[in-house]
Amino acid sequence: MSNLLGRHRAVMPSWLSLYYEQPIEIVSGRGRRVTDSDGRTYLDFFAGILTTMLGYDVPEVREAVERQLRTGVAHTSTLYLIRSQVELAEQIAALSGIADAKVFFTNSGTEANETALLLATNARRSDQVLALRNSYHGRSYGAMAVTGNRGWKNSSLSPVNVHYLHGTDRDRFPHLSDEEFLAFCADDLRQVLATATATDVACLIAEPVQGVGGFTVAPDGLLARYREILDEHGILLVSDEVQTGWGRTGEHFWGIQAHGVTPDVMTFAKGLGNGFAIGGVVADGALMDALPANGISTFGGNPVATAAAKATLDYLLAHDLQANARRLGRLLVDGLRTAVEKLPVVGDVRGRGLMLAVDLVDPDGGAPSPALAARVLEEAKRRGLLIGKGGLHGHTLRMAPPLTLTEDEATEGLGILVDS
Ligand code: PLP
After folding, report:
1. Name one GO molecular function term (predicted).
2. What residue spans define the domains of the chain?
3. Which of 6, 40, 239, 347 could staple 256 via S-S, CB 3.0–4.6 A?
């Protein structure tokens, strides 16, 4: 174990920061648990950063992958048709609620957002883009450009002109009522549009619940209010559903449905392949067709990944895991509110479905405390629970267990977290 850690430091770049002071080497997984090389088992409340949404070693997914591998075709490229790819695209298009939708597969959320930006800027012949403050959209040049927090970018250069909007910074305006805050945000957008350096703006890209931002929920109705104004200008709305898709938020299948609007474009990834690399874009067909037809991605829509994704989506729908996320999300957020919200080290507890966050603060003065978050993360791991951290100052504990979580496991995880 210590050898592996030493080797990691020798062969991987120093900027690839380690999450844990003493990272564990995971060797196997089953259900909602993983085992490390020392034989210790952990309940996983972060699900490979929200990817293993059905948990580990799911027979239906494994069998679908094995079936594809037994055909001898691990990959063909999108030059040819693959049944699971076509069926998956049909299913996602139908689930999207977007009229005449078409789907383009990628390997990650970053590429999905890059494709969405390409679609929107191409369709509107404009490099002006709106994004929310403290958003995170990925690692590539464009996706990073629309990321709204300097701390998560590794370049300040940008291929697009980005204007950041208020909306998920509700806590900075405690003197405003909910309605006043929405009016303030609408005003903010109108101001930005009035002063944008070009007359046309291509799109607004937004996460309905900011993931890396610390599971910050966009106030309900915000995106509807924005949509009204965007429509006056023909500006496209892109919903980044990379974290919020597939029912994780409990109340809705897509996070943006909480706002009662249908976007023009949605991007997705993370949980779809239950661990296999797949992402994509679902958009209005005319918009998709307007993109010059040279859009082949060598690995996007890989047949093993689409087989895994089709099996994952079928399982998710057959077992109504959205309802499970809603029920256990409530149980966990209520449990956290009761057990930890009043502790002097806790600044805030929030959640939507199985996206739950606790902000840790210095008990003297209430400043965000990333050091405390790191300590709790280590302590939870020592007690057998894996969680995530994040947020604006790295002071937010993030919990996003697989959607197959059971009530017993929810209670067990909650107990460990509270003790930690
Ligand atoms: N969009 C959101 C909302 C994300 O949270 C992430 C990753 O965390 C991405 C995009 C980028 O996805 P990926 O890491 O698969 O490239």
Report:
1. transaminase activity
2. 2-57+321-419, 73-318
3. 239
**0.95 surpassed by complex ipTM:** yes
Decide: 269 in ligand 1 pocket, CB within 6 A: yes
To test the ligand 1 pocket, which listed residue (136, 149, 268) has its Cβ within 8 A of the most ligand atoms?
Answer: 136
User: How does strand 128-132 pair with strand 161-165?
Assistant: parallel
Q: Is 109 in the pocket of ligand 1 (CB under 6 A)?
A: yes
| 409 Cβ below 6 A of ligand 1 | no
Ligand 1 centroid from CA 110, angstroms: 6
Ligand 1 mean position, distance from CA 185 (Å): 25
Average pLDDT, the chain: 93
- Asked if residue 114 has its Cβ within 6 Å of ligand 1, the reply is no
For the segment 19-62, what is each residue's pLDDT rounded down to a tens digit? Answer: 777 788 999 999 999 999 999 999 999 999 999 999 999 999 99
Task: Find the length of the chain.
Answer: 420
Q: What is the DSSP string of 7-21?
A: HHHHHS-TTS--SSS
The tokens describing 383, both together, are: 């007690």
Please identify, by atom number, the ligand 1 atom nearest to the C-alpha of residue 135: 3
* Cβ of residue 126 lying under 6 Å from some atom of ligand 1: no
| pLDDT in the model for residue 16 | 65
Do 143 and 207 form a contact (C-beta atoms < 8 A)?
A: no
Q: Measured between alpha carbons, how far is 242 from 237 in angstroms, rounded to an integer?
A: 15
Q: Rounded distance, CA 315 to CA 33, Å? A: 19
CATH of domain 73-318: 3.40.640.10
Residue 373, CA distances (Å) to 20, 105, 310, 393 in order: 11, 36, 37, 10
pLDDT of 394 higher than 90: yes
Q: Average of pLDDT values for 383-397? A: 95
Q: Which residues contact 287 (CB under 8 A, 6 or more apart)?
A: 119, 120, 123, 236, 264, 265
